[in-house]
Protein 1
Amino acid sequence: MTTQPILEVESLTLAAKSQEKLVHNISFSLERGESLGLVGESGSGKSLTLRAILGLLPRGVEQTGGTIRSKVSSSMVFQDPRGALDPLCPVVKQLTEVVYYRQKTTHKAARTIALELLERLGLPDSLRTKDRYPGQLSGGQCQRVVIAMALACKPGILLCDEPTTALDVTVQQQIMDTITSLQRELGFAMVFVTHNLAIAANLCSRLVVMKQGRMIEHGETHRLLRQPAEAYTQMLIDSVLPLPELEGGRTSWN
Amino acid sequence: MMNSKRTLTGAAGHNGSYKWLILALVRALIVILCVMTAVFFLIRIVPGDPAKMILGEYSTPEALKNMHHTLGLDLSLWEQFIRFVKMLFTQGDTGNSIIVGTSSRELIVERAPVTLLLIGIASILAIVTALLLATVAATHKDKLLDHLIRIIPAITLGMPVFWVGILFILLFSVRLGWFPVGGISEGGLGTLHSLVLPAVTIAFSQIPTLVRSLRAQMLEVLESEFVVTLRAAGIPSRVILFKHVLRNSALPTLMLLGVNISYLIGGTLVVEQVFGIKGIGSLLFTSISNRDFPVIQGIALYCALAVVIISLLIEIISGWLDPRTKENQ
Amino acid sequence: MNTTTHLDPSLPESGKTLSTLRQIGKTPSLLIGIIMFAILILLALFIPYLSPYQPSEQNLSAFLQPPSSAHWLGTDQLGRDLFTRLLYAARTDLTIMILAEIIPFCTGVMLGMISGYYGKWTDRIISLITDTFIAFPFYLIVIIVAFASGAGERGIYITFILVGWIVFARVVRGLSASFRKQEWIASAQTLGLPGIRIILRHLLPNVLPQAVVVLMTDMIGLLVAIVTLGYLGIGIAPPTPDWGTMISDGQPFITTAWWLSAVPGFAVVYTGIALSLLGDGLADIWRKK
Amino acid sequence: MELALQVQDLTVRYGGFTALDHIRLELEQHTTLGLVGESGSGKSTLARVIAGLIAPDEGQILLGSEELRKKRSKEQHKQIQMIFQNPDASLNPRHTVRQILAEALLFHRIVDRSQVGRRSTELLDRVQLEARSLDKYPHEFSGGQRQRIAIARALSVEPSLLIADEPTSALDVSVQRSVLELFHTLRTELHLTMLFISHDLGVIHAVSDTVAVMRQGKLVEVNTKDEFFIRPKHEYSRELLSAVPKMPR
């Protein structure tokens, strides 16, 4: 099945102003509704690659080579949910603003859409009557608001930068479930950045392994996990510390 | 979706919302009491006998005794303090002027409007200019404009405010003739016109620190993740800048303004002297050369009270703007 | 060069001095600041050997002269050489500026560390004192104290001991409170080190750089205050040369000989720029570490 | 087996918020107790109370048979050492490794002044760092190396209890693994008694003999490692265990 890819990254190279190369020659493509995992440790350049696709590189970083071709719009979910929201702006107002500018509606309609989105993401109904500041919500709730803001842009691709790393395990699981079910419903494609191979393996059909700005291995998830070609990939696999099987089965995850 | 519908975390419950406000009020009140005590001791920590300073080295013992009585210095320290506090609370006064004989409070109230007007105009000028410069600098980081604006504080920090005043007079009044050389013209617009140059002078001394802090704050906010989120969500840059960035970076600068208000008032007293404005500043210098201790005490007290009250107001405003203040308490 | 060596809290040994020098070279603002300040200090130190005039030497036949080769910056209303007076005034003003900062700097840093480290009641009491003192406009106190204790340097020293520490206490308190939450303080506490030792051996070297940066800015403010008092006639008493009295002496001639008031002002601004650059440069170096 | 540490009815309140609610916990000598819980569960507070950094409102702590009071003696301080989460902040940025180790060694008179250098080198060797690291400053090391230095410092005073508060959570996965291996070696070679705190159940599984679970200031379950990971007693423990992402097979 070869459909047209909606995102093509070709030999992408990113460098700091000081000419230091941060990302070398990364290439991959993404098809409609597909999930791709970018895995690696800190300094591997995975987050920068994501920012390049989003088109918002941090100050001082430039794209010095390669192309990014995308047919659809993309939006992003960040690692630190609290940092990703304006602390001085209540969340419904913040989301309404995004809907207003992005979907070009009236203010009133924007608010209705925003509240619907929040409800769909499982945020409490009380937000309808009383808006809250990000500091008054839990980390998990903030992340749901951030996801709602990303979805308000009706993205063709959702870029996720370690969206669950800052959260507790139980909350992490809820957020993962939410993302999976939303993807099934809305059909967006996803690029998922994480250092945890187990999370990537559960969500993505294909993986790209990155190390120090280079792409060292890529392929279909199951193949990659069974027969990693690189020692580094094997190390990442081993770094998911094993747990014995729970008696009576697990309550969730696939 | 399990328990994601659980209640919102009650970090800032309704019952605790006003606790920070009460705490701030109580603290201001205690500081005011301390300020009063400090004013009382102000002339007593300084070496020398105030009576002798007023009358001069060669006064008769008789005259000295009378002066001690007028100043209440013949009472015990404790009785003096009680008298002082009583007068403050009943009349808001620090005693009658030794020279003019009228109440210090009245003398101060008479001179206050022009000084307050001056401070008001200067503050607005300083804030508006600082906001403008800082926004330009921060949005043009490391470009020529930014470098130029960043040099300003380094140069102006060392400019004595009275000297700036003199140069302004030389340039704008003497050479260009735009403003009067000194003094205050009568009548609404005339008064304002004659206050422009002194206000610009005072604002000039405040702008560098404000620009420096505001620029640093704005850069920090501009780099923060939520700005990236908003940008990624397609919000226009001007909306991000004016609705989100400015608001977030204004808070710390507002606090700085609270600290600086004391310098602002002090600078105003000196600038009045340069421009020959008959405000609190000139009253201070007259009282000093007349050794009019009650009036000096009164000026010190009212200036300090103004600083405390303005700081309190700033604290309340920033608490009201920033939901986090309430949670921290 | 010894201006920086004695300001550097890490007390470089021979090996480190080299790298410190290299860092100064890499930080243009610091380098320019050092050079500007050094020129001023050297000129002020050697002015008795450089100038044929005495600072108070009057020459009524040559008063209010514009700058010339005999008088580089001209003469004042009494025919005194402006350039000579300017640098003798630098001696007076800079000496007071440096001496008056010593005690406030030490007490401010110490109180700030104690307040920030111990927190709770200690902090509340120290903060209350700070809030009370800061309520009085600095110039108001300086003017009152300077006046009451008689014109001259004494008023400046007294005022500065009274209120100069506040700036340092505020900055250092904030720093100490944030360091206190960091884990290296917690590990010093788990070792069982007494509070005073943690303050002196652990906190001090960490707050000192920032405090020195603040010191640079604060010295500018103090210099401006000294000059202001001189201008108001309650600072350094004539005939001791001082930039402030020079400005006020020149003011009557502002329309005819504007440089009389302008030049001493520029000397203050020059010193201000030098200290500003020094402070910015030091902050840059320490931020990189 | 002797008890190294007993915690009885320990309670800590901040205003109206109860951070620790009557915690009872025992730790046997030469074993490692893994303490798990999500953020806000009070596990770090418990560690800090035991280390003497926070004074409890109620309850007592026994080290061996000795009660630890609010004001601890120098010797009692020495007995409990702690390693913290954030490698960027766990060492004084203006002290060299030599100064850091020497301060601990000399303050508790572990060795003579003349022996400090030799002992410091030995300690670095224990945590697999080279001797020439001694004259470097913390910022010259990577996160994992800094965490090793923190371990060396904690071990230098020969404590009877070592508390590790999320020592690997801020590290990259590859580094995390090697630090965990170091803990394993130290445990077998030095017979350490350890309280190991983590939110990561995989890490807890790798280092512990016994597991304790905390939630909202309360101790939910204490169990042997083998029992806990297969047959947890409490529903919350089961919820935690099932939430851990696993490799697909």
Protein 2
Amino acid sequence: MPTSSRSSEGGTRRGAAAALLAPGLLALGVSFLVPLVWLARMSLNRTVGPAELQTAVSLRSYIDVLTDDFVWEVAWHTLWLGALVTVLAVVVSYPIALFLARTRSRLRGLLMALAIAPLLTSSVVRTFGWLILLSDDGIVNSALSGLGIIGEPLTLTNNVTGVVIALVEIMMPYAILAMIAGFGRVSKDLEDAAGSLGAGRLRCFVRITFPLSLPGVLTGALMVFVLTVSAFITPRLMGGGRVFVIATEIYDQATTTLDWPRASALSVLLLLLFGVFLVLYQRLFRMVEGR
Amino acid sequence: MRRMSTRALLPLLLVPAVALSACSTGNASDGADDGTTTVRLMAYATGGFKEKYVKAVIQPFEAAHPNIKVEYDPVVSSAEMLGRLRTQKSNPTIDVVIMDLSVAESANKEGIFTPLDPAAVPNMKDLSEHAKVRDNFGPGVTFDNLALVYNTEAVTTPPTSWNDLWDPAYKGKISISAPPQLDGIGLTVILSKILGGDYTTSIDPAIERLRKLAPSVQTWNPQPDTYTLVKSGQVNLALAWNARAQLQHDQSNGALDVVLPKEGSIMQVNTINLVKGSKRASDAQTFIDYALSPEAQALFAAEMFYAPTNTLAKVDDEVAQRTVMTPEKLKTMIAVDWNRLAEQRAQWTEIWRKDVISQ
Amino acid sequence: MEDAYLALSKLTKTYPNQSRSAVHDVDIDVARGEFISLLGPSGCGKTTTLRMIAGLISPTSGHIRVDGTDITNRPVHRRDMGLVFQSYALFPHMSVGENVDFGLQMRRVAKSDRRRRVADALDMVHLAHLANRRVSQLSGGQAQRIALARALVIEPTVLLLDEPLSNLDAKLREELRVEIRRIQQETGITTVFVTHDQDEALAMSDRLVVMSEGRVEQVGEPWAVYETPKNRFVADFIGRTNMFDGRVAGRSDGVLRLEAEGLGTLSVRAQQTDRATATVMVRPHRVRIDPAEQMANELKGRVVQSSYLGDVESVVIDVNGVRVLAERTHSGRPLTVGATVGLGWGDADAYVIPQ
Amino acid sequence: MRSLSEAIYRTVAGILVVCSYLFLLAPLLVVFVISFGASPTMEFPPKDWSLRWYADLAGNGEFIEGLRVSLLLGLVVTVVSLVAGVTAALALTRHRFGGRDAVIGLFTSPLLLPSVVLGLALLLVLGPVGLVGTYPGLVVAHLSLTIPYVVRTVMMSLNAVDPSCEQAARTLGAGPVTTFRRITLPLITPGLVAGAALSFIISFDEAVVSLFVVGTGRTTLPVVVFRYVSNNTDPQVAALSVVLIVFSLAAVALIERALGLKRVLSKA
């Protein structure tokens, strides 16, 4: 039976589809495509002297960026931060995700909402929460010194430690969501089967549950990594001007130094990096899935 | 030609957005009907600058020139102003801009600003040497200097020297806006001088000294509003600019105070510029001339403690003491080639990040 | 047919990027008040044809006329046709009554009139008491009756039924079959019914249209299509059948003698006599097992398989390597597999397929 | 043996889950509690309770103006996204055409774009046409963030609607527009509600892209908060944060009821 029987009458069909797509395409065109094209164009311009913008078609900005040790350092730092946050976020999210994927509790809906709801709360607010928690005279420090564990307050804000802690928390809902979605193959039955074959709980987890949950873990990891690498708010608010990542660098170049071609070139390179990671991820995912 | 085509392309693609905006932006009309012109001035948004400038300069000007209105377009930083001006280079809506000299130099070179006509701006001839800019490009309209601000509740012995930054008492309670912000650039210049060198030859000694300061600094973030950080006790000592700090001191009932360290400091110059292609160039220069006049300069100094650039301006002694204009203070100011600094800004920024902040 | 009420002529539908037409040169005439079934395997184009009549698909070429008026290019909502879907397609956000009322609202029928007609339509399907139910509370059979009432309440020119019974279980299906036929006859509405179920088609229709690969294979009354299929496809598709290919060996008095491999000489009453080979069709229920009387064709074989179905016993018999299907109706104890049996049929029980 | 290992496993797993939840919710809980404390030093737990920060909030012109801008912006963005998203979803589910997959890809790709890059790109484009810091500029800036979600939720709803319902309506005499209004629209209402709630809250919470394009004009609440938090940490921001959290919770509840959070939010 032809599946296209859904279509309506006449030669106006294509016209109707075009008319229906027009508002969406127009909106995305104006707010997404044109800006990106314009960004790419700007990256080919040149900056001379302190901040003088020259229209040109030149790869100068790319060459400058790619031969700049500092940029490499920032990029390296960004990737390192991304990797660290990814590992930590996946580790702390794993128990929640596994629990939510399998619980039959009546509270599941509520617990699910609690795990995901922070996603829809501004990261400014959540970073602010961490500023309160981690500041020198904040809750964590006063609790630790109250317990006599530390004499002097730990510096947990205005440095990379604070950025990592806050980012891990901010990324958790994404990791949880992606992992739950990827945990489809982890079924209680399989564990029960392993149990009936005499596997202990730990062995059961190591041999059955964990390998089966790997695709979910990978999806979660990619999501967190990509979002961390492009995070701006938290490194800015928590970093005390010490934490340089590609996102803050782009912001500075764009708003303070006013080197737009350089900022644009950095952006284009960041997008390329994203593309590379997506491709790598797909390869890896297929490998793990295909096992 | 290429320039033309790319410039022409963008507006075309954005027609829908512009159509959307047409109904809401409501740019001030030139009001041709009643014979008045509106000159659009772009200047600082923060730190009380707008409020005080409107009160001290714009209102008296409008009273004296009933057929010219001045509309104040507030922008946070000079860099952002340049960004905005760039995007409207072919069809500027702004006529006059007050911005930092170092940024203005870039705008002069990019052809965003145009030289003033000395005949239309007679007050130019009475300006201090420090205020004059090459080829009659927009001259200095205010003088200020880098200073230290501190929280008066937490700090019992006010700092007197830049060296006090290294006092362990302030450990973890210091805020410095690192380069590319001018604050950090200025500090590098000052330290070079204190350490017996010259920033034009080498800044290595200054950087070496700054490395030792790094662990004591709470934040290097460019704070548009360092003053609040100090007032709230988030930090106790910070690099800041004198004029705004003086104003904040008064407005916070002394929660914050400001000192000019004994080793001297650098001057910061805001210039007043005419935008190239302004359709109201003549009225704009009338306003610029007024802004440079002894009366306007004196009034604004009294309101906000920016030192006047016009040597004929008569300022209360009490006010003068709180600005950079006293002869003793002026003597301690370190001469700075802003043009040169602007070019080195990126390089210094990188050195700071590598060798200072990462400590 | 000159007095055709619904006439399809040379109706063709070709989809882009598909070499074969979904529907090809279909000519069907339906008389006023007639119940006609489109029958065929899935993919034969019957649903596409129905949807072209409804206006949901526009034909690539050809014409559709109702009562002499060409409606080929008339939009769906101006065609006045009642369509009943396989999935019922009741509006889930409306009550039963609102569903039935919808078409009347679209026609701007006066409110009082609408109330009466909705009640009548629900009465007709014996579900007047469900008017305020939510659609989700209906059983499958109820839902399909409501869908029927909804299609009929607008007094359509033609009623189109798109496999309306295939989502229902067997018992309900038979019940609704009767019901639909009753309502169709009461209202006298011209009906086109699409199904892949031959029993349904045979039981309900005035005439059948057998389709295959987008073409009409045969049109005719159910018994005629069943007894005298025009070709192998129809013979095979409608009912179970034995088909034997043979070489024409001789003819006399309207009886054709064929040499069929493994079966020897077969006699069959037939008109046509001019071909060298022919295919003979014998329906399984015409094949007698261990016949008491003498028959024109008599064979011996071994029982390969026997399925006892209650009212009949379906038997597969191997005759010299040829499989012959047979049915016993008065069976009692079923035959044992491996037993040798005699079988036979008269020369009038067989039929030579024309093509 | 088995029951012992089971018990240990359960205990360990339970503790891990509780700890993870605590970590996840800590910043929001702290902000919530602090906002009701009386002391300006943000002691925890507060010794005295007060609503004074909420009162201060009401008197803070900058916050109120930011809230006003964000609310209005959120509403306009939502309406525009709904129109653009619903029509696009209709085309993508109810029509077959060449390049359909590419169009679907286009409608989801903004989700993967780093907001800093989008912010910069928008700044470069909105500047020359004078839209920085204006409502139209902000609306344009937020659209590519919200439309993908609306398209997705509405497509999910449309795919769940039996297309024969629409066809049935057509055969009963309803024109295309009437069919959409009377049949399709009511049936996809859950998707619309979820899409609307999502696009409102995304626009309402968006900070990075806004930071680039607000300039000194219309400033959205998250940007006001960002700038404020750069300089201060005081219970007033905590109170403001609670207001933002309440908006989020309302959106979460709406989305969960309409379509289910999990389905709507996964980015892949």
